Amino acid sequence: LKGSKYTWQYNPKNMSARQWRDFKSLRESALKTARAWAIKELAMSLWHYVSKAWAKKGWKRWLSWAVRSRLEPIKKVARMIKKHLWGILNAVLLKVTNG
Length: 99
Description:
Elements: H1 5-9, H2 17-27, H3 32-45, H4 52-67, H5 72-83, H6 85-94
Helix pairs in contact: 4-5, 4-6
């Protein structure tokens, strides 16, 4: 894990084949960091839905995984997302933010 801070923060789409291959052992490890990264990556992919029903189903599945993750920071984010799920679904579908 030592020296891998920026590897975890790097966007997988921008990684070279070599970087992705080197990152594989970290991703597939039993580390809490690996679990948190996988949960974060799934959340990132949920922003690309075009159907409200599918988006809601995806976010609910993500919420279930996040709450059961036993990672307190992830659980805290999951509770916040659950409170604001209607707004998140609207942002996903309309591609509009208030920022």
